[in-house]
Amino acid sequence: MSSVALTVPASVVAAGSALRDRRRWLLAPGLGDWVIVEFAAADDVRSGMARVAAMLRRGGGAGRVEWWSPPNNGGSLRLEVADGAGSGRRVVVPVGPAGVVVVVGGNGPQLRAAVSRLAPVLRRRWTEERLAQQAVQLARRNQALEDFATLVAHELKTPLQLAHLQHDPLVEVDRALELVDALLEAARAESAAQACASAADCLDEALRDRDLGPITVEVTADLPQEAPLPAMALRVILRNLVANAVAAGARHIHVGAVASAASWVLVVDDDGVGVAETGGYAGGSRLGLSLCRRLASRFGGTLELAPRAVGGTRASVVVDRSR
User: Which of 259, 251, 278, 272 lies closest to 314, judged by CA?
Assistant: First the structure.
């Protein structure tokens, strides 16, 4: 039996080849797919958008890609991510609550399709991340309220009990009111906006504070112009540390600060009885130290007490500036 050769017209062959190429093009991942993958693989929205901006510029032909997002406290959009330095027509793509994506110097169909595919994913992830941040902040505030309530109850219990037992309770009632004033001032300091304050001005205001009373000891200072703390918080810390030194019998108090790229250290040295002596830093209600530690922690710092080799106490507030 003989075989018969079949001849396929060239037009049919060309059509089949074109169909196969079209099928491969449809099945192959495009720029939009890679953009989604890069964005999803990032740890957070900002790093994901940095990857996306670089990919859109390289693979989509854009001269520059920007992402503008709203700040946490509201207000106008701010530039979060930018890649490239091209010029030309600016195409603004709104992405809902996540702000806008701006494409400069490029508007091809593949680029437009990629940005359109990214928009809903960016909106969803940005919203989820913002909700998670708010949940963490709410949890911290709730914990702070519980800690503060415990502190108030503990510190007011002793003077109020003494007032109940004494014939003339006014002294202990006045002390309780002073504690309430200190707690309220610390609460206001905790809610203050993060800003740099003048350390020297804060010390002057702390020394003039009527709650501190007349200062008869010598106070010297060597302070830089700015401190990485809000003025109210720094004033409360300085006033309490100076008051502790006076209560410890100090005759001389020196306040200094050392700043570096990684940290800012406030130091209050005194020549009082020292931390180990009864009636010094270890005596009293320790409310001042509790407030100082709380405020320092609120703004990324710690408070430590240490005896000095020549006698007295060194109180150090260390603020981490690398956060």
Answer: 272
Please provide the distance, in angstroms rounded to a whole number, between the alpha carbons at the two ends of the chain. Answer: 86
Q: Token digits for 126?
A: 């940005």
Of 27-31, 94-98, 131-135, the least confident: 27-31
> pTM for the whole thing?
0.50
pLDDT at 181 (0 to 100)? 64
- Determine which helix (DSSP H) or strand (DSSP E) holds 59, and give its type and residue range: helix 45-60
Q: What is the DSSP string of 114-134?
A: HHHHHHHHHHHHHHHHHHHHH
In which residue are the tokens 């609550």 written?
Answer: 97
- Tokens (6 digits) for 149: 């309530």
E strand map for the chain: 64-69, 78-84, 90-94, 100-104, 218-222, 252-259, 263-270, 301-307, 313-320
In degrees rounded to 5, what are phi and psi of residue 317? -110, 115
Report the phi/psi class of residue 269: left, alpha or beta, with left for phi > 0 and alpha for psi in -120 to 50.
beta
- CATH, range 195-320: 3.30.565.10
Q: Which residues contact 121 (CB under 8 A, 6 or more apart)?
A: 36, 39, 40
CA distances from 57 to 31, 86, 148 (A): 11, 10, 51
Which pair of structure tokens corresponds to residue 156?
Answer: 């007011």
Do the beta carbons of residue 57 and residue 110 sit within 8 Å? no
Output phi, psi for 113, to 5 deg: -65, -40
The DSSP bridge partners found for residue 315 are 268, 305
Domain boundaries, the chain: 10-133, 195-320
pLDDT surpasses 50 at 97: yes
Is the CA virtual torsion 186, 245, 225, 303 positive or negative?
Answer: negative
For 10-133, which CATH superfamily applies? GAF domain (3.30.450.40)
